[in-house]
Amino acid sequence: MSVFSSNYKKEEIMKTFVEVFNGIISNKEETLKGYEEVIKELTYTKDLDDKINGLEKEAK
After folding, report:
1. What stretch of H or E contains 22?
2. Whole-model pTM?
């Protein structure tokens, strides 16, 4: 592999990264909304807490 092709690949990777990152930034609100929904889903523990409480009551 020549230095030219190595530099070319590095430049292409950097260019692609910037394009994708800019796409995320331009769709910032939509991206954040998606993350908020995932966070809500991951942090909702009421059902698990209820199950744990029920099992603890049975164990006593």
Report:
1. helix 3-26
2. 0.40
